[in-house]
Amino acid sequence: xxxxxxxxALIAGGGVLLYFILNKFFGKSDEQRKxxxxxKEPTQDGSTVAELNGMPFTDVMANSVANTLHDxxxxxxxDEDGIFQLLNQGYNGKALxxxxxxxxLREAGIIAGCHGDTWPFPGEDxxxxxxxxxxxxxxxxxxxIRAIFRKANIVF
Length: 156
Prior knowledge:
Elements: H1 3-26, H2 30-36, E1 51-52, E2 55-56, H3 59-73, E3 75-76, H4 80-87, H5 93-103, E4 106-107, E5 114-115, E6 125-126, H6 128-135, H7 139-150
Helix pairs in contact: 3-4, 3-5
């Protein structure tokens, strides 16, 4: 192999390595890709358009619900009643998918029961289902929330 061929091989190998490193740190995770595709999945209730009690449900509304859910689970302690009241308002399956997607992946702290802004102890990013599994203590509570999300074919 000539010196020129060695340099070309070295540059090509370095480029491939750089691609994988950049993709690891700046690319989307498999979890994020799955969340982004969730609205393309069929729903158990057969809905094709996001609605809240028969009225259109927008991305802005989904973001507001997702942020409120996160607020209910932030820090140490969870507002279980707030979560149930918020999710029991009559969302159809497509609206629940929008909420799940809007929640996306959010940082969860490493201290049990403490999520959100837990600096200096950051944890890993979790989706809404993983967050709810960690935050809701009783199986009855969790079963109620799972039943709501079943309309959207979201299982956690």
